[in-house]
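does this look right to u?? magnesium ion version
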Amino acid sequence: MKITDVRAYTLACRLPRKMGGAFRNPAGWDSRQALLVRVETNTGLVGWGESFAVPSVGSVIVRDVLKPMLVGQDPLEGEPLWDRLYFGLGYGGVKGAMVEALSGVDIALWDLKGQFLGKSVSQLLAEDLDVPAQHIRRRVDCYATGLYYEPLADLLSEARGYLDEGFRAIKMKIGLGEDEDLCRVRTLREAIGPDVNFKVDANCAYTLAAAREMERRLRPFDVDWFEEPLRVEDLGGYAALKQEREVRIASGEGEYCRWGFDALMPLVDVAQPDVARCGGLTEMVRIVRRAAELGCPIAPHAWTGAVCLAASLHVAAVAPTFEIFEYDRTPSPLRDALTREPFRYSDSMLSVPQGPGLGVELDLDMLLRHTTAVV
Ligand SMILES: [Mg+2]
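got this back:
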């Protein structure tokens, strides 16, 4: 089998109403975007991947940098091909949109490999990780991500909605300032009661001094984890927090490749690699293998479209130290309406798609309706 073409699709859709923001975008969003990658072969088989990159940037990297290295290659080659693509992206400091674009391509190659061999991506990943077939999870525990910077009354009804849907774990954005954050945490905890697993996410809002203070003030509210108190680059800050924290610290959605996670994972209590950002499934195998050696819990980050969600579920199905899956519940037709079969959720668990490759069939009419550019 040979690769004959690689295309990048930019998708965008307007939301029915503007959603409240988070620290890195306090004004909120009124649209969602996604970057999908389609890899075609001379067999007629086609693989789809998704990249976390800003679509206008990532699509150019796919077209101008990655595609010339991919056409004519064997899509089943695996790690040696990944290594050539990664080194082809540059000789130093290769992170950001470069690795995000590679992630989209890599996911598409795994989708192709699974289809070609008649195996699901989780079966393929399990073989690489020496996970016995009977240990592959078919459903995974998940938590609801939402509770952005909305007015408190709206947050309370949103949280009640998640509990009505059966979620036993929820996550709220903080980062508005310590006093306001604490007020929201206290109000939410009182409303949801003591039995709900409650996580908070600052999206890198704090200085080290403020993060230390915040961690101390979060302790009475039985917060399960305090996510991204600091920028992921601030390893010294994470090391200092780890010395004194009582609330678990989670981070990693902004980190890239095994080298980044090798440095970060010893400094946090939960690692959150994003398959559409960290280098794709090939690199994720290396990251979750290292996490298993370190005993570091993995809670995959996923905040983009349906292809990323499917790929992330396959990771959750096999990661030896998998803890819980992030199920973004904020409005996004690019996540919920892009596949012919909806993702199956019930009772705080998501089902891992079965069938060859990623196990999802894209609704191409829907996809093309939301496509704003193809390169
Ligand atoms: Mg987060």
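The mean pLDDT is 97. idk if thats expected tbh
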